[in-house]
Fold:
Amino acid sequence: MLDKDDCGRYCGFLRIDEMDKRKHFPRRYFLLDKDNGLVKWFQDKPKGSSSGHVCGMINIGYITKVDIVTTTKLKLEYCFVINTPFRPYYAQASNKDDLEEWVEVLNDASKITVPPEALLPRSDDQQNGVESNGAFHNAVVAGVVLKKSMSNDHHHHSRKTSTGALSSATSYQKLNSSVQDIDMSGDELVKQGWGTKQGHIRKNWKRRFFKVSKCGFAYYKSDKDDEEPLRFIPIIDILFAKEDGAHHRENVMFVVTTDKIYYIQADSSSEMLSWIVAFENVIDMFRNHSGQQVSIVTSQYHLHWW
Structure:
């Protein structure tokens, strides 16, 4: 049943195909967090002020459309699909009313709205790229070009964009302040090795050293032990990894996170499959682990990032 929590956020139990296999639909507690631009689901309903154990999330900015499933292939009643550019998320409600309400609120949350002030005539300074509070720059978030004030980036490092993604300046600053807390070695390390990564801006390909651990994913300029990562993505922000069969390069996979898509070319087909399995394993461990270790590592890290 669709409900609202104390903060006025839509919530309730649904069954979801977490691993995109259309076979297993575990029961999860969903929360539509519009303020942070996320749809999150938990193993159970969070108690009191506890944030609960997050099993997965979808960036609202990635949602293209939510549809009721009419095909008979799933052989399940009251199903709907959350469409994103990367994969569909199939979910099952408990009844028809619940189904229609979830489809309506998710579609409404994913709409792009234009604030009234954006429709007002702009001054000459604004048309030339200068605002009253300083200059601005363009940023690409979830495939959408956004205009961001440079002064806001400087003074408000903790502010998120409307889709819930952190600015690159914020990410870089907080990565440097928290890199000592990240354990990417020992028993936490699942896989490491070289690959070629596509840049987000220039789209050029560069060799990088990658590590996947129980607490997240990182890449480096070299494989030196004392090397600091160029970027670290906590496990809670990693949605899935999948082969990119449509790419003109061979052995390319993409890693989808709540912020970006990372395109990585492995040195061979078997190595690419090995990386995908490594990502699937750590994501599965995080979602299903009933212990405290992974949750503690991730929550500690988010004190620095979020």
Observations:
- DSSP finds six helices and 18 strands in the chain.
- The first strand starts at residue 3 and ends at 4.
